[in-house]
Amino acid sequence: MSAEKGAKVFKTKCSQCHTVEAGGPHKQGPNLHGLMGRQSGQAEGYSYSTANKESGITWTEDTLFDYLEAPKKYIKGTKMVFAGLKKPAERKDLIAYLAKATA
To answer: By Cβ atoms counted within 10 A, which residue in 17, 85, 98, 100 is the most buried?
Structure first.
């Protein structure tokens, strides 16, 4: 896993809709600061889908790995429009980046 490679994945595939820094704004998607260990649908001030709020998922490396492959399959009814990252290495790199950048 490479957080450096993951930063590039985030910039090209995620940053249009998400921020990671503490106090960062919500965009089309929520700010991801504090993501690891947080239950889905809980970032303060963001309007989540009911499906996301009620999914009961706690974000870990494992749950993110599965979610990022196909978000709409993992949380049916999510409003996240991203199709997903099919390559396992790309998902692992992104998760390594998110673990650092959102802490």
So the answer is: 98
